[in-house]
Amino acid sequence: MAKDFNVYQWRREHLNENQESFSDAFKKDNEVNNFTQGEKNDYAERYFDSMISQNENQEGLKVSTITFDQVKGMKLPYDITGGAYIEILRPNVFDEWKDRFMRVYGDADLKANGDKLIARSEKVDALQARAASDIRGAVGTVD
Question: Residue 22 pairs with which residues in a beta bridge?
Fold first, then answer.
């Protein structure tokens, strides 16, 4: 067997290949139910939590270990201090995002929140806190 064969990656690819995409499933269910904003968030959280947990029992996702199929249809953090997110539509763009994120912010835990993945690590949290402080200072508010 090849040294670089990853049984978890193989299982992810084969377990997910016959699944309906999130956007297709959501559109179909939303036409029937006409979700409120809170219901939309709950729907997305349940969908992505179940997709993540079906592959292997893990504490959470990390940027270094996620695959394109796991985050398809989700918005990923792009600029931590600016609060910007990016929606990945192609595998090559995902690879570029992942390389950039690891280079700039390091490895971080990811948690689904609606249709977004929120990054958490010491470095990310420190950058967010500093950005919030800079914004408050720029508009003249006092803590």
Answer: none
> 8 with 56: CB under 8 angstroms?
yes
Q: Which of 61, 35, 58 is nearest to 117 (CA)?
A: 61
CA atoms within 13 A on the CB side of 16: 23
Going by their DSSP bridges, the two strands 75-79 and 84-87 should be labelled as: antiparallel
Q: How far is CA 28 from CA 22, 31, 57, in A?
A: 10, 5, 29
pLDDT digits (tens, 9 = 90+) for 52-88: 544 443 446 888 888 888 888 888 888 877 778 888 8
Tokens of 65: 């270990």
The residue count for the chain: 143
Least confident of 16-25, 29-38, 49-58: 49-58
DSSP label of 19: S
Q: What is the model's pLDDT at position 99?
A: 92
Give this prediction's pTM: 0.51
d(CA 65, CA 57): 14
Q: What SS3 state is found at 59?
A: coil
How far is it, in rounded angstroms, from Cα 124 to Cα 126?
A: 5
